[in-house]
TrEMBL record:
It comes from the Bacteria. InterPro entries: P-loop_NTPase. This is Uncharacterized protein.
């Protein structure tokens, strides 16, 4: 439980050093918690498959260009 009720959180590769199974479990729990508590996440990652699994929208930044991925 979070003491404060933020509107959004910035997560910069929070599970990148974990193995795939543990990473998926943690992301699933985080996703459910944030969804239930209506907290938006800005999630930075190089793991595209994980982004696609736990995101409602994806924005990609590459070569100084920003584009929305659907």
């Amino acid at each position: 439980m979070m003491l404060l009720k933020p509107k959004f959180l910035l997560l910069d590769e929070p599970v990148n050093s974990l193995d795939k199974d543990l990473s998926d479990k943690i992301m699933k729990n985080l996703y459910e918690y944030f969804k239930i508590n209506d907290i938006s996440i800005i999630y930075i990652s190089h793991n595209r498959s994980q982004l696609e699994k736990y995101s409602t929208s994806i924005i990609e930044v590459s070569n100084k260009e920003v584009k929305k991925i659907e």
